[in-house]
Amino acid sequence: MTITPTPLDLARSLLHEGRLVDAEAVLARELQAVTERHGAGSEQWASAQCDLGNLLINADQTGRAIQCYEHAVSVAPGTDQEFRKAHLTYRLNLGLALRMAGRLDEAEAQLRAGADDRLAFYGRPHPGYAFGLIPLAELLLRRGDAAQARQVIEEAVGNLWRNRHDHVADALALRAEIVLADGSGAAIFPDLRALPDEMVQRLTPSVTNRLEDDGDPAVYRAVLSALATTLDARLGPDHPATFSAVAALANVARTLSDHATRAQAIERVLSSYDRRGEAERALNTLLGLALAQGDAGDDEAALRSYAAAYDRAAHIGNPELTSQTLRNWGLALKDADRPAEAEPRLRDAVAYAARGADPDLLGRAHIALGLFLQHEDRLADACPVLEQGLAVLDPVHPDALIGRSHLTAVIAGETCGCGNMAGTIEDAYREFVLAHLPADLLARLDVTVADGDFQVDVHLNREPTQEELQRLNAVMQSAYAEFRRRLTRR
Q: Is pTM beyond 0.70 here?
């Protein structure tokens, strides 16, 4: 049996491939065909408008998406139950898009109207009504009306709780933020004993998904701390949901430079791995703890953690893990102004990496040792070490860019190349493109970093074939995307 993909399926596939123009063209043609068959203002036309709006909202074209949703909502629902249900979705999408665009008055009007429509369609006890309350509560929170948001979210939580609906976790995650904002002093999470474990454990992804949507890290530090405590008591410290909440807390604390909370959370993760006998993950977590201690300015604690990590690595017997541990330990000793102890660790890191099968790890070990030697004013020793590292690393690897800038400085007789990253990235960009094209195609490729972006000027040596032109375009797009990402992360 052959299943023919719908225009929406095809458009989503094209969007996933990054072909927005082609995806939009598919749905635009479908909208035109629907208009010709059923007429503008028909139920089918409204559905096609919503599909196009969904595509545009996922492509960050919020303004155009709003226009599509407005068209869909403009078709008044009649008596057909399926269209009435679809119309609820159209209005919800419109409200959410207006909120994304910062048009909060209009968004609130649509979300309130949508909640009223859902109440009329489903009735108050149905979870379909609660689905319309959650985005309204979130909008009210965003507008600073925490008191009214609390009323709305409590109704949503109560509804979904009574229905034992999975979305109660999403409502509870939003409620936690609202409780923090309203200043009432209420528990961030209510007593969850009446909820089954499978619903309680869904709280972690519900909270972390909200954090990924540009949430306030300070708010989520409090939410995740309360969640970790709640889940620890309910599910145990080693349950995946508890573990994930603690790990997320460590990441948020790092964002806030709250090194005490970060270290405490990492220690809880480490203890969990140790109890479960996951030695390699425990070792990597211990390295993370050492980094946190170093960021907090507690060099002695960090160095003790690195020493303990090395003992673990020796017991595991994995050369790659041992190399990574030694490299990080050596760099920490260097930062603590203990170069005599740093150098043997960095050299051993190279030796262990050479026994393994990871060229990136070997390249990074060489670069770390080369930078150390350069900063110690041992330029003749540093040069071949840096060259060995660059020989095995991908030119777009962050360590390769750092190593290249320092090698340029070594050749110029300088002890540091930290300030020459722009020129290094330009050279690496140029080499990346040239390495992926026929040798005689380009006469010159000018690359300049300006105002945080790339300016690229291509000079052809001859007329390219159609295949070569496609290859050139693909390589240039790949180079821009990859190096732009590196540039913005420096």
A: yes
